[in-house]
Structures are given as C-alpha cells and as structure tokens.
Amino acid sequence: MNKSLLTHFAEALFQIAKEDNKVVDYGNDLSLLEGVFTANPDLVLFLDSPLISRNEKEKILNEAFSNSINKASLGFLKVLTYKGLVKGFPTINESYQHCYHRLMGILEGVIYAPYEISEIELRKIEDIFSKRLSQRVTFKVLIDKKVLAGMKIYLEDTLYDYSVDTKLNNIKDRLTYKD
Questions:
Q1: C-alpha–C-alpha distance, residues 96 and 15, integer Å
Q2: Is residue 44 a contact partner of residue 89, using CB atoms and an 8 Å limit?
Q3: Measured distance CA(179)–CA(66) in Å, rounded
Q4: What is the pLDDT of residue 163?
Q5: How many domains does the structure of the chain reveal?
Q6: Which of 23, 69, 146, 175 could form a disulfide with 17 if both were Cys (CB 3.0 to 4.6 A apart)?
Q7: Residue after which a domain boundary falls, among 71, 101, 131
Q8: What is the pLDDT of residues 122-161, one digit of tens each?
C-alpha cells in the first residue's frame, strides 16, 4: 500500500480537524477505529472487498459507527472504504497523530528493545527525556532482537545507546586496538 497516499489522506483529515477545532476529537475517533479494526480483521477484509457493494458497506458503517464517532470521521472512513484503503488504517492513524504532535510541539522518538516495555516504564523514560529536553517527548517501542539487552533510543536525529551489545563491542574494540 502506498504510504505517501495514506499520509496525504491523514494530513487532509488533520486540516479539516483544525478548521473544525476538533483535532483531538478526530484523533480519538481514529484511535477508536484502529482498535476496532485491530480487534476485527474480518471487518477490514469486508470493507476492502470489491465483491461487497458500496451500499452494503455504507449501511454497515452507519450502523456500526454513526453514534460513536463524528460525522466527518465517518465520512472520512467511507472515503477510505470506497478507495479500498481501510487496510492502511494504522498508517493513517499514525500519520494523523504525527501531525498532532507536531502542532503541539511534542517530540517523537523510537525505542528499540529486545523485549516489551511496560506502560509504566515507557512513561518514566518519556518523563526523563521530557525533563532533559524541556519539551514533551513521546516514544514508540519496537521490538528488535538484535539488541541483546538494554535499549537504543532515537530522538531528533540523535541515538542514545543503552544497549549491552554496543558496550561489549566498545570493550572488544579497545582490547583489539593496536597502536
């Protein structure tokens, strides 16, 4: 799926949200929809299927979401459905959230770790970096089995390397260095 096209759709919705003064509301709608799609992958297949009529899809969307999300969010979902882009919804939500963070001056980073990081640990790390940089920071955690232990944190073109594998490589380099 074309990521730049999905990003374009997210940015368009974000502009509409700004004009409507509903940036947070539409963002919440997208997060809710992503949760529904994650929990119900068959719904995504149904909405992206060319074998199901447009009217049938619209009927299902209206029944499922007309009372739980904003009209503009529902209209946006219908456009994505007509274009066969619902399976790209996680990318759209991520792009929308990126626009929101940029508007609010929130820095985004990525933590690479060999294990899952709890919400409590993640919040502590975000607090430490927010205080250090005097700006709110948020991280996305990605599991990377190449990191032996510890973690690598990328933020604003800077790598903060707290991994054991890098420390071991540094020791190895010092031991094998010849003058």
A1: 10
A2: yes
A3: 72
A4: 75
A5: 2
A6: 23
A7: 101
A8: 999 999 999 998 889 999 998 988 877 788 888 887 888 8
DSSP state letters, the chain: --HHHHHHHHHHHHHHHHHTT-HHHHHHHHHHHHHHHHH-HHHHHHHH-TTS-HHHHHHHHHHHHTTTS-HHHHHHHHHHHHHT-GGGHHHHHHHHHHHHHHHHT-EEEEEEESS---HHHHHHHHHHHHHHHTS-EEEEEEE-TTS-SEEEEEETTEEEEEEHHHHHHHHHHHHH---
Give the end of a domain, one of 101, 121, 136. 101
Which domain, by its residues, includes 76?
3-101
- What own/partner pairs with CB < 8 Å and gap ≥ 24 does 123-127 have? 125/153
- 0.85 exceeded by pTM: no
pLDDT digits (tens, 9 = 90+) for 70-100: 999 999 999 999 999 999 999 999 999 999 9
- Are both 20 and 88 inside the same structural domain? yes
Statement: residue 6 has pLDDT above 80: yes
Report the alpha-carbon distance of residue 80 to residue 85 in Å, rounded. Answer: 5
- The arrangement of strands across the sheet holding 150-155 comes to 137-143, 107-113, 150-155, 158-163
